[in-house]
Design goal:
This protein has 189 residues and is mostly helical. Helix content is 72%, strand content 0%. Helix 3 packs antiparallel against helix 6. The longest helix has 45 residues. It is rod-shaped, with a radius of gyration of 29 Å.
Length: 189
Amino acid sequence: MTGDRGTPEPDVRYESYSHEQLKAEVDAGNDPESAGEIARGWAGLGQRLQDAVDALTAASSGSEEAWQGQGGEALRAAFARAGQWAQHAAETASEVGGGVAAQAGAAARARAAMPEPVAYDPAATIRDAVGGGDLAALVGLTDALAERREQAERARRQAIDVLYARDRALRDAVPAGSFTAPPSLSSRA
């Protein structure tokens, strides 16, 4: 996989979601622990590839006295091509691991920052006030409803902000590099 890839811009308008839908969006499939394991796997692959680069470099250097001439030069050229590819692959694997770890962190932060929905059901509130027979509650009902609606809307707006911040962090964590095909190790390449 080579070439420039752009990270798509989201076309989601969270303003059209209910608070319950926003919370479900941040909770569904959100498993930062598993993502952390995946990130560690990529980082481990990057380290193993770096170890391979070091081994190729040592083998190439060690071959200079023992193997000279065209055969030795061809071997060292093949080692150099393999080493360059492995170095790029090691850096890309490490970058992918860092990106996955950053995305896991963004998902965990979003889950932690997501406010609970604030219930706002004017009909139920009115029924409860009328059914309770408390005249004082009925008199203050308009103010109570307006305050509860404001609380619910403030929490929903915060939830919207959490999701937009999560999406930005997820996009920002996408690695810029990509893996390339391994080189031909033949001198006929």
